[in-house]
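Troubleshooting log. The previous structure file for this entry was overwritten by mistake, so regenerating from the original sequence record. Sequence copied from the archived sheet and checked twice against the printout by T.R.
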Amino acid sequence: MKLTKLGYLIAKLKQKYISHNAEPISDFYRKGGATIGKNTIICDYIPISEPELVEVKDDCIVSSGVSFITHDHCINKVTNRVSNFFGKIVIGNNCFLGQRSLIMYGVQLEDNIIVGSGSVVTKSFSESNIIIAGNPAKKIGTWDKFKAKYEDKAAFRSELADIICGKTNKMIRR
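Regenerated output below.
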């Protein structure tokens, strides 16, 4: 099965009106050839050239605009033959891939890694409980330090009106 935007939209409708959980979207990617673990949430359509080369394990969140790059053609420019580089992408358990992050072919992420929004992950990370970000992505912190710094700023969507009005001190300022 090819992973089309229409197929994704049908899965999204099933999620919203029938099952009320993430499984229809995960099933859409599974049927397309990707390995998607249980309780993994994929927030938006992700076109994947070779879904068989993508594995996202259990309890992950894949934000909108994430790209899984499973191959590239750059070797064509330096050789006389039409060829590609291919690599499997493996995302460990309980990871978060921030909005518009890009994961390159051959990358493997250990369990419990947060990938910052807009990051370009060009190499594997074998350490758990870390935060990576940047272009190229590098380790910028640990879960413990992140929790200590921001735990009191975490809010529910139901609190958004109070945050906007300044009734609570949960607005993030950089």
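The chain has one domain: 5-140. Archived copy saved in two places this time.
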